[in-house]
Amino acid sequence: MLQFFILIPLAGFLLSLCIPEKMENAVSRTVFCTIGSHLLIVLVFLAIWLSHGHPVLEKTGIVLFNTKDYQFLVSFYFDRISAVYLFVGAVLTFLIAQYCRWYLHRESGYKRFFNIILFFYVGYNIIIFSGNFETLFVGWEILGLSSFLLIGFYRDRYLPVKNALKVFTVFRIADMSLLIVMWMNHYLWHKNITFTELADKQFISEHLQNHPLFGVLISLLILLAAAVKSGQLPFSSWVPRAMEGPTPSSAIFYGSLSVHLGVFLLLRTYPFWENISSMVTTVVIVGLLTSIVATGIARVQSSIKTQIAYASIAQIGIIFIEIALGYHALALIHFAGNAFLRTYQLLVSPSAVSYMIREQFFNFVPLHYVDKKSVFKKLEYSIYLLCLKEFHLDNFVYRFFWNPLKWCGRKLNVLSGKSVIVLSAVIFSVGLMCLFNQSLIHPEICKYLPVLFAFAGLAMLLKSFSERKDVLLSWVLVIVMHLYRTLAISLNGDINTNEIILYLSGVIISGVLGYACLNELKSREQDISLSRFQGHSYEYPKLAFIFMLACLGLMAFPMTPTFIGVELILTHIHKDQASLIIFTALSYVMSGISLIRIYARIFLGPHVKTYHATPNKSA
Amino acid sequence: MHSNNSIFNEQEVLKELKHYLPSQAPLKDFVHHNTLHAFQDQKFYDGIRSASKIFGYFVSLQLEDYRALYISKRIRENILKRIIAERKGVEHLNEWMKKAIGKKYDTSVSPRIGLLRSVWERKYHLNLDSLVHPYLFRILCSYLDQGISIWSFPVGHEGFLASVKEIEKNSFTSFFKGKRARNLLLGGNCKVEDLLKIVVGDEALYKQYLFDQQFAHQGWSGMVSTIEDHPQSLLNQKKISIHDLIVLELLLEIDTLDSQFGQKWLPVGSKLKGRPDGLFDEVPQTELDEVLSIWQDAFEWSYYDQVLAAIQLQGEIDPVPPFHKSFQVVTCIDDRELSFRRYLERIDPECETFATPGFFGVEFFFQPEHGKFYTKCCPAPVTPNYLIKETGSRRKQNKEAYFSKLSHSLFRGWFITQTLGLLSGFKLALNVFRPSAMPAMASSSAHMDKTSRLTIENKNLNHRERNLQIGFTIEEMVQRVDAILKSIGLVKDFASIVYIVGHGATSINNPHYCAYDCGACGGRPGSVNAKVFCFMANHPLVREELGRRGLVIPEETQFLACLHDTTRDEITYFDENFLSPVNSANHQKNKPVFIQALDFNAKERSRRLVSIDTTLSAEKIHKEILRRSVSLFEPRQELNHSTNAICFVGRRDLSKNIYLDRRSSMNSYDYQLDPDGKYLANVMKPIAPVMGGINLEYFFSRVDNYRLGAGTKLPHNVMGLIGVANGSDGDLRPGLPSQMIEVHDPVRLLVIVEQLPEIVLGAISQQAATYEFYIHEWVRLVAVHPETRELSVFRDGRFTLYRPLTRSLDSISDVVSLIETVKAAESIQIVEATKENLPVYLMH
């Protein structure tokens, strides 16, 4: 039963892809029917569910992929947390979809917009119905991508594309931590843990007794993922910057549903960490700090949407505290209230001008500035200035996460394109030799080989990420990383050939497809470099779409063969190989960023050709 | 002024900079104007060519658009041929036809602006703008903010730079990352020239650098420049200047460069090989420019020609108009009133309609009761000396809890989210499925309470407030009433009631709400002006004096003020209780005519609104229109001046039988009363700046919606209540959003005056500012001989005979059945969008 809640929007999404662009009515009707029927079923379902005393429902064991020691299980789970999220999500999405039907009339990209909304809705439903981390992760990735697409909806302008990339990179941090959580879980429980089992306190405490550090690490990583998604410190600054799409999409995504998914993650995993006092304290501290800082920033915002964004984040900070202290009913009501309120406030935000100016006209009281020197004044100025600068939060992620990586990549720039390829080929063949002659190598050395090759793969990615000119090189290096990863895992032990074939088939298909796209574009446009946004989707929208699919394939987007491959490979990393898992997770994250960067640089942003009107960069 | 001075003169450069920056006022004072006003001292095509080459704007449709329009027959072949023949001579006709239709051109635009500063990116590999702009905009917006922020800029009475300095000096934190910029600011050593020396180095490049820098965010720079010149355009006044902005921006640039490269970086000038072209060097005309201007002319004349032909082709008007007039109506010249008048005349053939700019010749500031400020109610360039005050208002201010700042605070916000927050789900559902009026909307009726009284008559000249005279004296009233009635030709055959109809609009979720109201009233509804005018015209002493001057208004005639809401198609009557019993009865008879006319008007408008089925009955459609006007999700509550193209100045007969599809504004004028052009000069005064300004703003917003328009309004974010920007970090977006201009055909305004050419010439040449529009052809002008209907077009300072190429036009008898058959355009691509704009028909 539960899977139908995902299948309905999924069917609607696939159907909406097939409608011709010009047929606005057909698009909006499809969306209306999909989300409308979904809402109807949800309401009926909730009524029945409540009348039966709101039992916890679950459906486990939909095996997507099976090998001898690994299963990719999709499972679903439904309790009152899901119920509240389902209700709020279904109602809001339905209202917004109806709202957008006229609001977006004649907007170029009308169809694209509704495609993304449905895609988002699929991801949202997967998350709230998910019964284990693997399923949740699938939804999480879909949400990340649809966020990127919606923020960059106005893909011919510079700022939306830049901010979409920015948000995507921040989201990648959450993805990485979830990925590590999944791996750790695998070793903690020796199986795919479901949320039902996670709710079993007995079971949890038994396992955690032996691995207290594991427990703390897992919960902190969960908190990291939640903080990123919900815009908590130090990641708050992405929320206001995400307000680049049409107002209703900002309202539903960043005002209400999307930002509250971090809250969902915390609620869902609460049984796991409720007794880990260090985690509880950290959640409270993060929530408290965020609510104070974000309130301060909200107070100085002089634009209406960013003000709402920060005010919303501040409330989510309080929700974090409520969760940590165990007031879950309150947290759920608070979530619903905050979601509805911010959506509505964002939707009426353009009316602020006429309303507030009228109010000012009748009630204006001029401010009296007092000139006096005092410490208090100094303090006031200082805090004001800090709030105005958003406590330097916008720089934070860049300075501590990406700049070091970029810096490493730049260091590799001493190698030219050709030498990189030659070098990687040499290292790779050395690796292959090691693989086939493993018996000849000293076991001590053997132990370090996988890490070494994983690291080499990561280095290739860094080079790809910081490449400024040659787009083909950048693309190929991502493929090379995948090859290195296979090599590393193969060296790590008993992986079977079928698994490798599955993994590499995904890599090769999407790799070749993407290469072909880029090559085609290069033959027509000569100079395609990565040094700036080029906006080729203006002339090649179809090619852009195909290339994006190739990117998804290569970045191991959920449900691609590569994704299964990555999942498989994670299971082959042993418990004591922390560095290997970190390299693997990092390269998973970096490959996504590098690929989306290529996509954005080549196909998005203001068009390089100026035979038609293009927007100012600052607009 | 265009010479490339090697010595940097700050004052001069700033003055020139301000001249070229956009001059759009803050949202509350939004008034249409020529977007490229800085180039108006040149001929139209020279001006736009320069603008394009210097600033990179697109100033016409694209070549392929014109060609597609030609293929779709929207641009007519015979017109194109004639234009080529006129310009190039008949002998070159074939050669230029080939160029226009088939030759390949490189149509890309590469502007001069920004070339110098692109060195940062090319040589330093630094995207300086993306590092400086968002922060700079945030500081600026916080300083100028009119009431969004809860915690406003802590210092504000000393000017922008002084305030920044004050905070910097007395704070534990800093605006800057490094020491140098901070020291420069605090050390007082921050003259523009000194800073430029650090950043640019070479004095010869200073000017160009400043232009590059400020035009990288022309929205904010333009706003700062406007506020500098017109501080009263903000209610909460702020002192700021372009100089302060430049200093702070240079400091931030220095700071950013320092933080990237240490203090060791070299100024731009030293990295530059050679010097870029001077910004304002002569822009040579290319063959492509000529081809484009030929096409633009052809596009315009393909439409003009039909209208001009229609003037000659329409049958003779019945020389003896019906003696009995049921009522008379005076509306604004606004193009939105055209169809309304047409329906009034159709429904009641005995009524008579006139039009004059919607402030009805009375200029004043208005102070609503309890209002803390004055509102200007007249065209933007006029500064009135009078004040009208409202008393006895029963206006209630409805609050909108969702704008309450409490919801942004921590603890009360916590409470509000759980109460009001949950409720807002229902509110949203209600507005999506059953839209209704709410306090958040901008409504024309909020301008003045229906029941309130105004202090209109001044009985004591000492009765003044803040240097404004309260009310008008009898003599001043007489002048104004006399001038208006004579200029529109309403001097005899008065009906028992003369309706003076101002207009306003209703919209919601619309930061550009002022653009929807009456432009002649400075972007306000015209209700107060209508009421003031009626008071004057009804005043017995005024009537007496007018009679002495030969303008006899019968005693039983009464003037009744009204407000037409152009979005809702509703009419409000003011002071109905002052009507005499007889007139009261007449009024009751007239009312159904208005109601019916408004229903039909709504129906005619609905053909462009896809959410409404045009084949429904007029009453049903009107209900839909009402619902639409309060729908949050409707970005086009009305289409404003979209498609405006023509302005008639003359008697109603001049255009009464022509179907103009709401594309024309009209100013009533009777040549017979004005043999020497005395009134015409007054009539023509606002036409070019107001109607021409509207037209040119629509024109340029249409051809380059990215740089000259505001782009789509869907992602707009309200900045400090003074402007809109995209998202959180964007520059302000002056100009019109795409939703306002999407069906507009970019053609210049054609003013058609019914008067002898020499008198027209005399009238327009009285004011240099107005004359500039015509002589440089930013607005086109045709004179119609009142008796022979001979046409002469104004070109190069004189009128030359014009013979329309259109020989015949289709006729319609019924507008309603015509509009029911037309479909709304599917896309906003010009060839498709222009199909919505109907050709000219003769009506019989």
Question: What key phrases describe this protein's structure?
Answer:
heterodimer, A: 619 residues, mainly alpha, 2 domains, two-stranded antiparallel ribbon, 2 strands, 73% helix, B: 844 residues, alpha/beta, 6-stranded mixed beta sheet, 30 helices, 22 strands, globular, disordered N terminus
Short account of what is shown:
The complex is a heterodimer of chains A (619) and B (844). With 619 residues, chain A is an all-alpha fold.
Q: Which chains have the largest interface?
A: A-B, 107 and 124 residues
Number of strands of chain A: 2
| Count of individual beta strands of chain B | 22
Q: Element order, helices and strands of chain A?
A: HHEEHHHHHHHHHHHHHHHHHHHHHHH
Rg of chain B, rounded, reads 28 Å
Residues in β-strands, percent of chain A: under 5%
Secondary structural class of chain B:
alpha/beta
From the alpha carbons, calculate the radius of gyration of chain A and give it in angstroms. 25 Å
Average residue pLDDT of chain A: 87
Q: What's the end-to-end separation of chain A, in Å?
A: 48 Å
Distance between the termini of chain B: 56 Å
Which bin fits the share of residues in helices of chain A? over 70%
- The biggest beta sheet of chain A, please? 2 strands, antiparallel
- Number of separate structural domains of chain A: 2
Could you list the spans of chain B in which at least 5 consecutive residues all have pLDDT below 50?
A: 1-5
Taken from the alpha-carbon principal axes, the silhouette of chain A is: globular
What is the topology, as strand order, of the major beta sheet of chain A? 1-2
The helix count of chain A comes to: 25
Uncertain residue segments of chain A: none
